[in-house]
Amino acid sequence: MLDIQRLVAGYGPLVVVRDIDLSVSAGEISVLIGRNGVGKTTLLRAVAGHRRATEGSVAVAGEEVTSFPPHRRARAGIAYVPQGRDIFGTLTVKENLLVAVKAMRMRDPSRRLAEILDMLPLLGEKLQDRGASLSGGQQQILAIGRALISDPKVLLLDEPSEGIQPSIVAEIAETVARIAQERGLAVLVVEQNLDFVAKVAERVRVIDRGQIVANLRVEDLVREESLQHQYLGV
Ligand SMILES: Nc1ncnc2c1ncn2[C@@H]1O[C@H](COP(=O)(O)OP(=O)(O)OP(=O)(O)O)[C@@H](O)[C@H]1O
Ligand SMILES: [Mg+2]
């Protein structure tokens, strides 16, 4: 569903992501881990279209989107939840969702909204609450709900458990796993939290200095502190 080939991206002369090859199929959750500053966010930005790739290609369901700006990639089926979530704190949950509805110029927004509330019932209970009043976990669910408005084929999540109470991390992971399965979504998630990772995947890819350097079993990573030290810097 998502096919990334030999992707190179960075900031001006600074090359941050090098030669990334990665495919995620429908219903699959693919996890990337790596130390701080190795290029995880830059990779997701390059897939979402917020950074232009200098080489390589990105395709969704066979359609090449490499030259598309972000809004056209969204139309092609890529949804992106950035690190830190970026929800509007002064707007209500409903208004946050409607911003996405407007951005997509949807034909039947009320039906889509109802579907989202069906998938993420928590949001239905909080519709009139302001974004800033939600807990970290609730904000993450809102950010995911907002991303799903476009009925994407691919969902990019950048550290969804960051800033979330440990007791809620597993819940967020289960929600992501359920949605991926129910919607046949291809999910590419950057995550450092092993509790989250263990709930959604059996294997992880490790990114270091912009390249995929290893493909590990989550079980081994959880068990072996030396691997965590080597690849996560913890
Ligand atoms: N807007 C920018 N302009 C220039 N350099 C940037 C910019 N954003 C990130 N970088 C650099 O690119 C490199 C990779 O950053 P990136 O944010 O992709 O890493 P990351 O793996 O997501 O890190 P973290 O774990 O801290 O989120 C870093 O060296 C960073 O300083
Ligand atoms: Mg990052």
UniProtKB/TrEMBL annotation:
It holds the Pfam family ABC_tran. InterPro entries: AAA+_ATPase, ABC_transporter-like_ATP-bd, BCAA_Transport_ATP-bd_LivF, P-loop_NTPase. GO terms for biological process: L-amino acid transport. PANTHER family: HIGH-AFFINITY BRANCHED-CHAIN AMINO ACID TRANSPORT ATP-BINDING PROTEIN (PTHR43820:SF5), HIGH-AFFINITY BRANCHED-CHAIN AMINO ACID TRANSPORT ATP-BINDING PROTEIN LIVF (PTHR43820). GO terms for molecular function: ATP binding; ATP hydrolysis activity; branched-chain amino acid transmembrane transporter activity. The keyword Nucleotide-binding applies. It comes from the Bacteria. This is Urea ABC transporter ATP-binding protein UrtE. The keyword Nucleotide-binding applies. Residues 2-234 form the ABC transporter domain. Gene3D superfamilies: P-loop containing nucleotide triphosphate hydrolases. Belongs to the ABC transporter superfamily. Keywords: Amino-acid transport, ATP-binding, Nucleotide-binding, Transport.
